């Protein structure tokens, strides 16, 4: 399967607690080899439920038709959104414990799959403690597996924490690492000291700090960038094919990190977890009907 880069053609519209983004189709052959064939595929609704917001993806095959971010919602609103879109399958991933009320309510209208450590995956998971593996990490790996088939992939998720996850070209997830995120580093130095200020997330021009502000920014931000570069090198060496390692940035700080690294082949995909959740739903729908 080969993928074309996502189009930049999109429009966004706002609701007090909801942001909708409709994009030009992100087509991946052969699943969406033509518009006519794509229109015959079922519509899938993907829910990535976080602590403060829910990311929603509406897919036809592997085509991201619409994306939304909701900070406040009800079950009735989700059902109405899914019914209006013509969805017949729903994928739910939540950072919290499984919500039986939500699952049962959705199941009255759709075929529902909830991501757990026991959900069948389209790749082999060799993580030694699958029960403790974050669902966001699992979904991001699935997204890499979809968008870059038969490639060694390193997912770098620049969020509250920086997470590294390694997937081989043979479709084997080997694990990864977790480190403090950029803002966490800045806030920690301020919180755990008496006089160090909390600085802006801005990279200094010089790697030598000439003030307390730039010293802190270099330590936190340039330190994180150097860490990422070092881990990319180590993961590549472990595989023995460093030149073939596809780095994929996602998360809120993805663009910031990518812009300060000399990695011309690195890829930024802010919706990687949505693509991954949809990939898992497709896999279970058609492999385990």
Layout: helices, strands, pairs:
Layout: E1 2-3, E2 10-15, E3 18-23, E4 28-29, H1 35-39, E5 43-49, E6 54-60, E7 63-70, H2 75-85, E8 87-94, H3 100-107, E9 111-114, E10 124-125, H4 135-147, E11 152-158, E12 161-167, E13 172-180, H5 182-191, H6 212-239, E14 245-250, H7 254-259, E15 267-268, H8 272-287
Parallel strand pairs: 5-8, 8-9, 10-13, 11-14, 14-15
Antiparallel strand pairs: 1-4, 2-3, 3-7, 5-6, 6-7, 11-12, 12-13
Helix pairs in contact: 4-8, 5-6
Provide a compact summary of the structure.
The chain is an alpha/beta fold. It is 34% helix and 29% strand. The longest helix is centred in the last third of the chain and has 28 residues, at 212-239.
The helix/strand series, from N terminus to C terminus, equals: EEEEHEEEHEHEEHEEEHHEHEH
| CATH level-4 homologous superfamily of the largest domain | ATPase, nucleotide binding domain
Which CATH top level class of the largest domain fits? Alpha Beta
Helix amount: 25-40%
Overall structural class, as computed from helix and strand content, comes to alpha/beta
Q: Helical stretch count?
A: 8
- Estimate the global geometry from the Cα principal axes: globular
Largest sheet: 7 strands, mixed
């Amino acid at each position: 399967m080969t993928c074309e880069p996502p189009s930049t053609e999109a429009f966004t519209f706002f609701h007090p607690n909801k942001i909708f983004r409709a994009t030009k189709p992100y087509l991946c052959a052969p699943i969406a080899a033509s518009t006519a064939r794509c229109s015959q595929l079922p519509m899938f609704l993907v829910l990535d439920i976080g602590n403060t917001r829910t990311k929603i993806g509406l897919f036809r095959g592997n085509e991201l038709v619409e994306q939304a971010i909701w900070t406040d919602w009800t079950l009735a609103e989700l059902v109405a959104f899914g019914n209006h879109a013509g969805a017949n399958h729903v994928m739910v991933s939540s950072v919290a414990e499984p919500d039986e009320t939500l699952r049962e309510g959705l199941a009255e209208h759709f075929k529902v799959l909830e991501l757990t450590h026991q959900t069948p995956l389209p790749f082999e998971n060799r993580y030694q403690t699958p029960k403790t593996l974050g669902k966001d990490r699992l979904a991001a790996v699935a997204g890499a597996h979809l968008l870059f088939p038969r490639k060694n992939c390193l997912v770098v998720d620049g969020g509250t924490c920086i997470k590294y996850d390694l997937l081989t070209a043979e479709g084997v997830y080997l694990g990864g690492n977790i480190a403090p995120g950029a803002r966490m580093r800045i806030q920690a130095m301020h919180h755990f000291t008496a006089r160090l200020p909390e600085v802006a997330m801005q990279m200094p021009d010089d790697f030598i700090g000439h003030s307390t502000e730039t010293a802190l920014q270099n330590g936190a931000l340039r330190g994180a960038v150097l860490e990422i570069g070092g881990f990319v090198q180590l993961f590549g060496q472990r595989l023995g094919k460093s030149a073939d390692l596809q780095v994929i940035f996602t998360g809120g700080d993805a663009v910031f990190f990518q812009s300060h690294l000399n990695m011309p082949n690195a890829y930024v995909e802010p919706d990687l977890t949505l693509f991954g959740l949809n990939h898992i739903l497709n896999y279970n729908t058609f492999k385990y009907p």
